[in-house]
Structures are given as structure tokens and as C-alpha cells.
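Duplicate of earlier report; Low-density lipoprotein receptor-related protein 1B input re-posted below.
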Amino acid sequence: KLFFTDYGNAAKVERCDMDGMNRTWIVDSKIEQPTALALDLVNKYVYWVDIYLDSVEVVDYQGRKRHTIIKGRQIRHLCGLAVFESYLYTVNSDNVSILRINRYNGTDVQSLARLDHAKEIRVYQKRTQTAVRSHACEVDPYGMPGGCSHICLLSSNYKARTCRCRTGFILGSDGRSCK
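Output:
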């Protein structure tokens, strides 16, 4: 799945398949400017920062179990969001500091470091990476991902895929080759 935020005409948090199909709104009320987003892949939770409401919230992948982690002035101007173990990590763009917030109760907000011009944060740790099983976009014996001549996108599950073409090309009638 692909998860993303939008605060155009109607603010929302959405998900879709990697090929763009099955687009679903998972949060579309009591939300103004969702910016940063982070996933708990193990427990299947989506965390986001709303910079207008000065809040960090969470919801499960289906849009249920929504609640506010933390809200208020102490978390104004947040950008970037990452989740690891019991904490959320984010960047306060006002004073350019990295904050650590307990994701279960919103307490224990600590400034860990200051970095000039930081706008994003990521946690790289082996335990945050899910195991990869064989999937529909694996390279075939001819070196083509999923048998697609240009781009292979996973579809509704890891066994299904959709082929797409680079700009200027159209997909052939076989659904795999680009012309």
C-alpha cells in the first residue's frame, strides 16, 4: 500500500495500491493540514502531523482507532515524522531541533539535537524493515521487472502487478510492452 496526505480542497489521509488503484480515504474529518506521515508497519498504524491544528494523531490502516498523541504549542512547526519502538521522532522547523515524543501517551517530549536546515527525518534500523517475500514485480529471466518492459507496480497484493510506461510511451495490447 501507498499512504499519503493531501490538504487541497479537502484535507485527508489516504491509501491506495502501489499502482494507484483502490484509493481510499482513511481520515477526512477534523483534519486541516496533514503534512508529515509515518507508518508502524508491524501494528499497522498511520501517524501524521497536522501543522494547522498543532497535533500529532494516529489511526489504524482502516481509519479506525483514531486518537490524538499530542496537541498544543510545544509541537508547533513540526515537519518530518518517523516512528521507532515507543517513540515518534520529528523536526521542529522553528528552532531546528529533533524531538522525541512517547507515541503511547504523548509525554516525555525531549529535544535531542539541533540541526541547521533539517526538514525531514528517517529511522534506519534492521527491525524497521519487513521481510520481503517473492512478489509479482521480481525480475524475470530477460531482466524485466514482472515481465514489464518499463515499470512494474504491485497491485492489490504482492502476487498481482500492473505494468506502466515511461512518459512518451503507451502500453501495448499485451499489457506488458511499451511503444
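The longest strand covers residues 34-40.

Merging into the original ticket.
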